[in-house]
Amino acid sequence: MKDILSIITSQGYEGKTTNFYDYCKRLIEENDIEYHTSKNTVGAPINRTKLHAYFINRKDIFDFLWLNREIASPDKEIIFKKYPVLHHMHACIREFREIFITKSLVYLYLFIEKYQKSVIGNIRTFVSGLLKDIEAVENAVSSQLSNGFLEGGNNRLKMIKRMMYGRAGLPLLRAKVLC
After folding, report:
1. Is residue 164 part of a domain?
2. What pTM, to 2 d.p., does this model score?
3. Which domain holds residue 157?
4. Which residues share a beta bridge with 36?
5. 48 domain residue, yes or no
6. Is residue 103, in this structure, part of any structural domain at all?
7. What does the pLDDT profile of the chain (179 residues) look like in tens digits?
8. At what angle do helices 105-115 and 84-102 cross, to 10 degrees?
9. Distance between CA atoms of 134 and 109, rounded to whole angstroms?
10. Is residue 126 one of the residues assigned to a domain?
């Protein structure tokens, strides 16, 4: 629907986005159009041949890629067919996770060699960033130690600082942190 909205906006539509979505919803109801979203489709059989419209949520795609959450097999086929670059990204993310699971420096260097010449510019940039700080990356891969606890404390402190909106200075911040 976003694509349709951008097209009609370029043709002169000046209405609000919510009006457009309300109109689309009314059209769907009036014309008895069956549609389905990707939400809760894992393991749920859906007769896609009967549907007029089918939506795969962007959040579900991100969860599939980054959080390794499973989505329905037909959904995977749809997104990989429509966006072939996602297949490449999914493989890259999976392989990078495998480096930390196996704690293998060999896998790290194979990963770097493979994705240094990736067709996706962001992946090449990521790999060049790994190479710039390779010693720290090697330590992160091979070591059982983590600075997660320290980073959690830093995150908490920054959150408190933001909540205070810069009021009253260091003495009040110190008191709030110690409370």
Report:
1. yes
2. 0.57
3. 148-178
4. 54
5. no
6. no
7. 677 888 888 888 888 888 888 888 888 778 777 665 555 444 455 555 555 556 777 888 888 888 888 888 888 888 888 888 888 999 999 999 999 999 999 999 999 999 999 989 999 999 999 999 999 999 999 988 887 888 888 888 888 888 877 676 778 878 877 87
8. 160
9. 10
10. no
Give dist(CA 56, CA 78) in Å, integer.
Answer: 9
Q: Around Cβ 173, how many Cβ atoms within 10 Å?
A: 16
* Count: domains in the chain: 1
Query: What are the DSSP calls for 64-80, one per residue?
Result: HHHS-----HHHHHHHH
Contact predicate 108/138, CB 8 Å:
yes
Q: Which two tokens stand for residue 114?
A: 């493979």
Number of alpha helices (DSSP H) and beta strands (DSSP E) in the chain: 10, 2
Q: Under a CB-based contact definition with an 8 Å cutoff, are residues 5 and 17 in contact? A: yes
Q: What are phi and psi of 64, to 5 degrees?
A: -65, -45
| DSSP secondary structure of 92-118 | HHHHHHHHHHHT-HHHHHHHHHHHTT-
Q: Which helix (H) or strand (E) holds 85?
A: helix 84-102
pLDDT score recorded for residue 40: 45
